[in-house]
Design a protein that fits this description.
By secondary structure, this protein is α/β, with parallel strands linked by helices.
């Protein structure tokens, strides 16, 4: 049998990803494969066709003339196959309850609106920032309300809001009388941040390390409520978003605006290239209305 006929589409997908990245290792990361796995697929493809597809040298990899010809024909093939999969998936999902991934802070930012969505038979999946992105990519949720930063090459991203951070401290804390604070005002403090599952935390750690703030001790906790609880009980400080009508009002703490160019930015996430069903389009409009 002609080897072109039995060629596996996954090999063509891998080949095209290498063409896009100009790198076996970067293509592997995009496809969740090792560099060795990518190399094996390329070698198998070259063996089937009986021609080399890439020049490999000190300057990286470049397409051969045969590689350019394969790219020309492989692109429409893979595009049509992806459209077929999307149409099949859309038909399979028709009539099923929609699933919306939401990162934890969203429950505080739009609690009433999210409750109304649940009453419309929409399943809310409460998760962490990084896991919300993964759920959208793997298709276990129709869309997600995540937070920046997001890989815009893999997601259709709709900005929803931009919240500043606040310093949380007890009413009798020395910083409580300030109208606003900066990172430099944290010298000598025990500062609580949310854990590493939250995208803001690595960025905050990087900024704080670059400032070299003297005698600043960092701690982490998995829940925002714990930041308020620790501040009230121990006299430490925390960084958090101040949500309207939040349950955090039960704590005897004050929130001081942080005068820094740092924001928590929720966004609506959808896997790039997937068509919206009528039900999903309506859900998107409802979500946008929650963040005027």
């Amino acid at each position: 049998m002609d080897p072109v006929i039995i060629m596996e589409l996954r090999k063509l997908v891998c080949f095209l990803q290498i063409c896009t990245c100009d790198s076996l290792s970067q293509a592997g990361r995009r496809l969740y494969m090792s560099q060795q796995g990518v190399s094996r697929l390329v070698h198998s493809l070259e063996t089937e066709l009986g021609v080399p597809l890439f020049y490999r040298g000190a300057q990286g990899i470049k397409l051969t003339e045969e590689g350019k010809l394969l790219k020309k024909h492989a692109e429409p093939l893979c595009r049509e196959y992806q459209l077929l999969l999307e149409e099949i998936e859309a038909g399979r999902q028709a009539g099923k309850p929609l699933r919306l991934g939401i990162t934890s802070g969203i429950l505080f930012a739009a609690q009433d609106g999210l409750t109304s969505l649940e009453q419309q038979n929409i399943t809310l999946i409460d998760t962490y920032d990084d896991l919300c992105d993964e759920m959208v990519l793997e298709g276990s949720v129709s869309m997600g309300i995540g937070v920046e930063p997001v890989d815009h090459t893999r997601f259709e991203v709709t900005p929803l809001a931009r919240y500043p951070l606040y310093l949380i401290c007890r009413q009798d804390h020395p910083l409580a009388c300030r109208a606003q604070v900066t990172f430099d005002d944290l010298a000598g403090q025990h500062l609580y941040l949310l854990g590493q599952h939250y995208k803001a935390t690595p960025r905050l750690r990087q900024i704080l390390a670059s400032r070299r703030i003297p005698n600043l001790t960092l701690h982490e906790t998995g829940y925002m409520m714990n930041i308020y609880r620790r501040c009230q009980q121990t006299g430490c400080v925390g960084l958090a978003v101040q949500y309207p009508n939040s349950v955090t009002a039960q704590f005897d703490c004050t929130a001081i605006p942080l005068r820094e160019d740092f924001f928590w930015e929720p966004c609506l996430l959808r896997k790039k290239g997937l068509p919206l069903s009528p039900e999903e389009a309506m859900l998107k409009r409802q979500i946008l209305s929650l963040f005027p």
